[in-house]
Structure formats: C-alpha cells, structure tokens
Amino acid sequence: MVVYEWSRVAEEALNPLVSRQMIHTERMTVARLRLRKGALVPEHSHMHEQVTMLIEGQVRFTVGGEVRILSAGELMQIPPHAPHSVEALADSMAIDLFSPVRDDWVRGDDAYLRR
Amino acid sequence: MVVYEWSRVAEEALNPLVSRQMIHTERMTVARLRLRKGALVPEHSHMHEQVTMLIEGQVRFTVGGEVRILSAGELMQIPPHAPHSVEALADSMAIDLFSPVRDDWVRGDDAYLRR
Q1: What is the per-residue pLDDT across A75-87, written as a single tens digit (0 to 9) for each?
Q2: Which residue of B has its CA nearest to A72?
Q3: Which whole number is the average pLDDT over B3-22?
Q4: A81: buried, middle or exposed (CB in 10 Å: 19+, 13-18, 0-12)?
Q5: Which pLDDT value is given to residue A115?
Q6: Mind telling me how many Å the CA of B26 is from chain A's nearest CA?
Q7: Residue B49 is nearest to which of A28, A66, A70, comparing CB atoms?
Q8: CB distance A3–B99 less than 8 Å?
C-alpha cells in the first residue's frame, strides 16, 4: 500500500500554460494536469490506453480526426495508439489515467508537451 | 474514442450506505463510489491493482492488516491480491481505478459489496 497526497506531489511546469503532477503505480499512471486557456497539446499517440476525467474547465479534443468538446464532469476514453491533440477552451484541470504505466514519461520522453 | 458523463452513468445502490457508478474500458475500470458515514466494505481481495482517489470525506482503510486513514485529496495504491477493507468515517466520495478491468463486477460478482 502506498499513499499519495496531491498537495505533496511535485508539480512541473511543462510550458507557461501546462503543468503536470504524476503518480506511477504497477500498472497505471495517474496524472493531474492544469491547462490554462489557450494551452495546446499537439497531436501525439502512445501505446497506453488513456482515460481523461475533466475536473474543471472545458477542452477540445481531436482524436483520430474527430473533434469533441469535453466539459467538467465528463470523461473520455482514448484507445491505444489513437492520435490525439487537445486545446484548452478555458482554464482547466484534468485527471489523466493510463494503463500501462507511461514509461516514456518516467524516462523524461515528453518533449511534445513542452512546446 | 468514447465519452462518458458521470451524471448519465447509472448509479446503483449496493446497500443503503453504498452506491456505485462504473465505467469499463479496454484495460481499466473507473468507478465512482458514494459511501455514507458508517458504510463498511468487508475485507476482500482481487487480482486487479487498485488506486483509490478520495474526493470528499474520510475513510479508514485496512490493507494487509495495516490501518490508514485517507482524507479528501489523498490517493492510495492497493497492490493486486492485497486483502483490504474500508469504513467510511464521514459521508465520502471516491474514484476507484482498477487495471485490468474488473471482470468480476462486469459479470455481477460483487456480493461482498451488498451486505
């Protein structure tokens, strides 16, 4: 058993509009992302299944060419390998769940988030 | 891509003190549980890794004989197969994450929650 507290998990500014906290367990990564209005995460894909839970705000996802606006209280499942991008339409906070663990993030391979 | 909205996901009363909403994806189950003060989930275990994010309230977890109180804003990772039980010390809401999918819940094998 391991206990975490969001207020004690390091928050990293990836660029002036995006910051990230993350927790890696055996089979999952749980990340809390803050996106200021106008933040853009460019199209990327990964072998991990993703579920985004939008806690606050509103974002526009493009997944495999399909556009969908996500509001607070909604969740979106993104299949493994699906190309996706995000634009924050308002200051937003999301919890992103991944399985398996985001080994690319663990080893610091996240340049696409830092533009 | 699949979009869900918590307010449209069926909420099932498992007993007078516990209700559950759940979403099953390819590799994960995301469940939102409401536990009224005094609710007890008896000791059980499963092969799925679990991460509990406590959103509101306070609960007492016993995991492998070790007791830990979890407050809102905290998360707890429970390893696969670890015996665990929960008591709600206040009206609480938790998001429980599992990987892989809780096939036992999918097939309705959740009698331990209904006592």
Answers
A1: 999 999 999 999 9
A2: B5
A3: 97
A4: exposed
A5: 79
A6: 7
A7: A28
A8: no
DSSP A77-104: EE-TT--EEEEESSSEEEEEEEES--HH
The structure tokens 């979009």 sit at B3
CB atoms A73 and B23 under 8 Å: no
Domain ranges of chain B: 6-113
The question of ipTM being above 0.90 is answered as yes
Task: Look at A4 and B64 and tell me if their CB atoms are within 8 Å.
Answer: no
Contact A76 B2 (CB under 8 A): yes
**pLDDT tens digits, one per residue of B40-99:** 999 999 999 999 999 999 999 999 999 999 999 999 999 999 999 999 999 999 999 999
Helix (H) or strand (E) holding B106: helix B103-106
Global pTM reads: 0.96
Query: What number does CATH give the domain A6-113?
Result: 2.60.120.10
